[in-house]
């Protein structure tokens, strides 16, 4: 006969001979609920210990559950636990522990359903039933939902010819005939190896999921408030998962919300505004999309941009450009997102664009409203082509985050100076201008996949200097030189654009070349910001016109050295200063380092990599 003793909980501890080292917190909590409701249904196996007390070798989860109840003050340390006692050196202990943890059979879900049904038939609720078995109320509800499954299908499951996932999938449709039909329609390989996805898809073909774009767009609360109901899928991990039962109501709510959005857009003055809830790729391809000009940041936005740049610089110098501290890294991400919002600029649409284009309101895959302005219908494409700067579909996607080395505003400022300098040089180089135009046109017209291989805005737009203010550029020496050259060419040209063609026909090649060089020059775009990289053609172009930025820009404390992280700046210096000088500069604060560098680099014609012809 086994030696069964009642031992106080205070004298029990987990034995080193218990082979299970990891226990689920959920399993411990569930066991604690069961013990509280029904008592300890199975005794523990323990062995004596030379140091005193008893080691639990079988029943570690039950011991942990009892200790949890003790911690929660639901039992005392004198709680009596039934234990079968073994000698500490009993050779069978390891085998018993292995058998307890490996050779165990979980209760069949169908049997659980029958047991739960009997208790619920007695008037108990899911929470109360769950407490008796150490299960959650949702777990009991899941098993009870199996009552909606055809008995024929449950019989197939009991025979082992269907998986539990497949059985659970039938609960999304209460009609048992449809359930049986769906099972019969499955291919043999789906029955043998498939999960419940195919069954759910067949039974919910006419239903709309609660996480569908339409449902997200309207909102489940709005849908319910309008009288709609939801059929929950208790076997989905998401507690809100289920199916919209009144799709007609959902469609009505979608239409009403889109109509409200349309009313606000009509006042913007577009030729038309239409709501297309589901805009397919094929349908979208029928339209042409116009570009809006992006407004420069306001003075208020620029002030905030400068604060964000200063904070970024301070963080990078204190924590490095890639902080290990999660909170600091998150702050950098927040700064980056806000920075992109401020620097992108608000779209500005012209009246002549609105006169030929419209707005499509559609619903994105994430359930968010997608407003597409500047859409041109096929019948209006001819009118749109007469506008200046009309292009194809506007590129989408989020702007890249500023790179760690240089603030995007500094990047934009430097490359804006580089752009203006390149334009000034190009105006004196018709040969390179002609080559540039030829290259740009050939790339676009003679290659199937042109890619981004030209620094020329062939649509003859002027580049947007963005974060580098036009005033800063225009008042600079190179800006004034560029403006004077451009004015000299424009004086020769007719005042009205419609007279230009006839005028060009009468001019000698030298004058035509001069106009061509000026036009090409103003279309050069080397501006970089938001962490963008220069294209290969940028270096090729500046090399072709022999652009030497040392003639147009020199580094100072204000325009460069105090605006770059110290670590990045020391790397950029390269061989411009000696290793000994770098060691002297390293401990200096940023302002002191900037002043020292102005003196150190004087007359050395040093340029940051961004302005070199590389």
Question: Explain this structure to me?
Answer:
The model is unreliable at about 390-405 and about 445-450 (pLDDT under 50). With about 625 residues, the chain is an alpha+beta fold. A five-stranded mixed β-sheet has the order 1-5-3-4-2. Strands 9-13-14-10 form a four-stranded mixed β-sheet. It has a three-stranded antiparallel β-sheet with strand order 6-8-7, with no helix packed on it. The protein contains 29 helices and 14 strands.
Shape: flat
Low-confidence parts, pLDDT < 50 over ≥5 residues? 389-403, 445-450
What is the residue-averaged pLDDT?
79
Radius of gyration: 37 Å
> Beta-strand percentage?
5-15%
- First-last Cα distance: 90 Å
The structure class reads alpha+beta
Helix content: 40-55%
Number of strands: 14
Please give the order of strands in the largest beta sheet: 1-5-3-4-2
* Secondary structure tally, helices: 29
**Major β-sheet profile:** 5 strands, mixed
Characteristics:
Conserved hypothetical protein from pyrococcus furiosus pfu- 392566-001, ParB domain; 49% helix; 614 residues; 29 helices
Give a quick precis of the structure:
It is built from 29 helices and 14 strands. It is α+β, with helices and mostly antiparallel strands and 614 residues long. Helix 20 packs across helix 23 (477-492) and helix 20 packs antiparallel against helix 25.
């Amino acid at each position: 006969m086994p030696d069964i003793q009642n031992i106080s909980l205070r004298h029990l501890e987990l034995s080193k001979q218990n082979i299970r080292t990891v226990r689920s917190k959920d399993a411990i909590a569930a066991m604690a609920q069961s013990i509280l409701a029904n008592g300890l249904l199975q005794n523990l196996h323990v062995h004596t210990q030379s140091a005193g007390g008893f080691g639990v070798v079988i029943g570690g989860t039950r011991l942990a559950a009892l200790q949890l109840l003790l911690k929660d003050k639901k039992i005392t340390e004198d709680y009596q636990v039934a234990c079968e006692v073994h000698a500490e050196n009993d050779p069978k202990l390891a085998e018993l522990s292995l058998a307890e943890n490996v050779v165990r059979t979980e209760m069949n879900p169908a049997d659980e359903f029958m047991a739960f049904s009997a208790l619920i038939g007695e008037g108990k609720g899911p929470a109360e039933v769950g407490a008796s078995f150490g299960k959650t109320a949702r777990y009991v509800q899941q098993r009870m939902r199996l009552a909606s499954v055809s008995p024929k299908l449950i019989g197939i499951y009991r025979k082992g010819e269907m998986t539990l996932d497949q059985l659970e999938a039938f609960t999304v449709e209460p009609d048992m005939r449809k359930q049986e039909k769906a099972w019969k329609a499955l291919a043999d390989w789906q029955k043998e190896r498939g999960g419940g996805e195919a069954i759910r898809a067949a039974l919910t073909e006419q239903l709309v999921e609660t996480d569908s774009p339409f449902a997200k767009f309207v909102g489940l609360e709005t849908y319910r408030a309008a009288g709609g109901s939801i059929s929950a899928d208790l076997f989905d991990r998401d507690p809100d998962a289920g199916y919209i039962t009144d799709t007609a109501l959902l469609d009505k709510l979608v239409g009403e919300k889109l109509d409200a959005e349309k009313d606000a857009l009509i006042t913007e003055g577009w030729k038309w505004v239409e709501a297309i809830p589901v805009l397919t790729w094929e349908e979208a391809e029928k339209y042409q999309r116009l570009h809006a000009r992006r407004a420069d940041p306001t003075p208020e936005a620029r002030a905030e941009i400068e604060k964000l740049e200063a904070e970024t610089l301070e963080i990078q110098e204190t924590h490095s450009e890639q902080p290990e501290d999660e909170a600091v890294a998150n702050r950098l991400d927040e700064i980056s997102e806000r920075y992109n919002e401020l620097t992108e600029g608000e779209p500005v649409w012209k009246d002549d664009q609105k006169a030929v284009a419209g707005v499509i309101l559609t619903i994105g895959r994430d359930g968010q409203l997608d407003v597409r302005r500047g859409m041109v219908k096929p019948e209006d494409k001819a009118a749109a082509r007469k506008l200046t700067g009309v292009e194809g579909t506007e590129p989408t996607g989020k702007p890249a985050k500023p790179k760690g080395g240089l603030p995007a505003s500094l990047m934009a400022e430097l490359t804006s100076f580089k752009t203006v300098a390149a334009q000034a040089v190009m105006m004196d180089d018709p040969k390179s201008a002609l080559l540039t135009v030829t290259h740009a046109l050939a790339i676009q017209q003679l290659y199937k996949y042109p890619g981004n291989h030209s620094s020329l805005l062939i649509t003859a737009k002027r580049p947007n200097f963005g974060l580098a203010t036009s005033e800063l550029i225009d008042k600079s020496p190179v800006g004034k030189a560029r403006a004077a050259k451009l004015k000299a060419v424009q004086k020769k040209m007719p005042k009205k654009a419609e007279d230009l063609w006839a005028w060009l026909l009468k001019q000698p090649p030298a004058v035509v070349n001069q106009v061509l060089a000026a036009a090409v020059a103003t279309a050069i775009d080397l501006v970089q910001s938001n962490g963008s990289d220069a294209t290969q053609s940028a270096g090729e172009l500046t090399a072709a016109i022999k652009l030497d930025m040392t003639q147009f820009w020199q580094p100072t404390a204000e325009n460069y050295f105090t605006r770059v992280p110290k670590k990045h700046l020391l790397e950029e210096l390269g061989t411009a200063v000696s290793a000994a000088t770098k060691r002297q500069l390293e401990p200096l604060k940023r302002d002191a380092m900037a002043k020292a560098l102005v003196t150190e680099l004087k007359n050395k014609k040093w340029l940051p990599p961004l302005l070199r012809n590389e």
